[in-house]
């Protein structure tokens, strides 16, 4: 356990995105959304794509249409997309959402408490959490080139 | 030769290179909203009172060609007209000179001799900004510049490495320039008497290598700082072929002759540059300081402050103050004494003398749409030196040997994203 | 002795600068730093033009970037 984690840490430090299964339990959180409160633990049994973003982050603009697409393709197979906005001012996030509409859950973490728990290294950062609540893949940044890789990881976790 | 001289395309490269260094650590994420194209354009009018006027339009086009990868090209035109000091000092009699093209011109008694000139410069440069790794970026540039008597070809490369969770960026850059000077009617032999000087030829070369090492650091959420060390080594023909030095009588101080200037054929220069960007609740302060020294004996301090004051609706005003002070080059002489042994090198170019420049300006910027920005600035620059140096002789004491140079700087800029 | 004294003085200073003066700004707290007005060179064309002007009018140039406008022929 120590060695893989060390490898993961090292790989993260070196900047490799999409590292192989790291099997840390995903820290639970409760955050407000536009329609209520989202609690991560309540999604146990689902595959969760957890994404941290900010209105001032360039690649985040590109990730939104893609996340909509992923939801459209995989929601019925059990994928839930939860995004956590870290803007200090919610108005900035809402303005962003007007321009880049989201068909998925947007939670607000203005003080970065949850981002801190997840040791977010860059904007955006995403975590693929399996049905048992373990973080299986992490990605820093959002690149066109990584889309296919993330999608295949999603599919691997959705596989029965 | 004021603004005219040898601003090869190097400047273009520098600005663009700076833009790269300037990317705040961890800000590779932060891209402007909008499309693939960025167009920046500006028109500068630089006008010295009674001397040189330069009109300079320029445009820079930047295109995103891949993820985090950009290609840009810049075109700069310069039109220079007016009069520039030829190096001779004012004296108690009218002075007559022959311009490089063979025309006679006269400076009235008591006035610093100025030579009319006119020139154009065209400069193009290109730059490739490429991510080499998630934490490493490379910036590669090439440049070309030409005016009637001067051409410059250059290349540069810089690496920026983000470390420390992108809170720190380490930079290392190299640039090399190969310039060619083609003086109108040949380069005169240095320190030769103007009336009888023979010319030493054409197509004189000048090579420059620059090295930069820098650290950019996020200090806190509102503060960013940068520290650079740079070294520049130039060799070849560094003299100004058109500048002369007055030869004066050792007793009366009257001008009796003129000689061409002569500078060393190499120059090594070091600089330390520090910058701080600080954000108040909305406003931003840009502060910088540079200490520079070279083996010609020039040492200079430059301090610069800009305060961006935010107005409603995305507009701002930005006052700017700049202070510059340099010591003279060892071989700077306002004039030489007739009959005394000639020094190895001598130049009366006021830009190599003890000199202070003060600039004050105001800029106004506004954004009519989300993807377009306008700005306009007006600045006033004043240069002064030793008008009445203590070693002035006889009639020189009645002359202003270093008249102030005053200039207005006007600029309008427009940038847009497509 | 002198050297040791210098080190004794410099070490706390260095650690102060590294440890205290520089905050570890979290990635989600870099909103202000991401603004274009907070970049080291917010207006590259203006910087280019200023470099050009002062390069032509003074005996110093460069320092901010590679080739900072200098060619030594001033």
Summarize the structure.
The complex is a heterotrimer of chains A (160), B (418) and C (74). Chain B has 418 residues and is mostly beta strands.
Walkthrough of the structure:
The complex is a heterotrimer of chains A (160), B (418) and C (74). By secondary structure, chain A is of the alpha/beta class. Chain A has helices at 2-14, 58-74, 90-99, 113-117, 147-158; strands at residues 24-25, 30-33, 36-39, 47-53, 79-85, 105-108, 125-129, 134-140. Chain A has a six-stranded mixed beta sheet with strand order 1-8-7-4-5-6, with helices on one face. Chain A has a two-stranded antiparallel ribbon with strand order 2-3. The longest helix of chain A has 17 residues, at 58-74. Chain A starts with a helix and ends with a helix. Mean pLDDT of chain A is 88; it is low at 1-19. Chain B is mostly beta strands. Chain B has one domain: Porin (Beta Barrel), CATH 2.40.160. Chain C starts with a helix and ends in a 17-residue tail after the last helix. Chain C has 74 residues and is mainly α. The radius of gyration of chain C is 20 Å and the shape is flat. Mean pLDDT of chain C is 77; it is low at 67-74. The longest helix of chain C is centred in the N-terminal third of the chain and has 20 residues, at 2-21. Chain A binds chain B through residues 15-17, 56-59, 61, 121-123, 140-141, 143-145, and chain B through 26, 29-33, 67, 133-135, 165-166.
* Portion in strands of chain C: under 5%
Low-confidence runs of at least 5 consecutive residues of chain A: 1-19
- Termini separation of chain A comes to 25 Å
Number of helices of chain C: 2
> How would a textbook summarize the main sheet of chain C?
none
Shape of chain C: flat
Counting helices, strands and paired strands, the structural category of chain A is: alpha/beta
Please tally the helical runs of chain A, counting DSSP H or I stretches of 4 or more residues.
Answer: 5
Which helices and strands appear, and what pairs or packs with what?
The complex is a heterotrimer of chains A (160), B (418) and C (74).
Chain A: H1 2-14, E1 24-25, E2 30-33, E3 36-39, E4 47-53, H2 58-74, E5 79-85, H3 90-99, E6 105-108, H4 113-117, E7 125-129, E8 134-140, H5 147-158
Parallel strand pairs in A: 4-5, 5-6
Antiparallel strand pairs in A: 1-8, 2-3, 4-7, 7-8
Chain B: H1 10-22, E1 37-48, E2 52-66, E3 69-85, E4 95-98, E5 104-107, E6 114-133, E7 136-147, E8 150-163, E9 168-181, E10 204-220, E11 223-236, E12 244-248, E13 255-260, E14 266-279, E15 284-294, E16 299-310, E17 316-326, E18 335-337, E19 355-369, E20 372-385, E21 405-417
Chain C: H1 2-21, H2 44-57
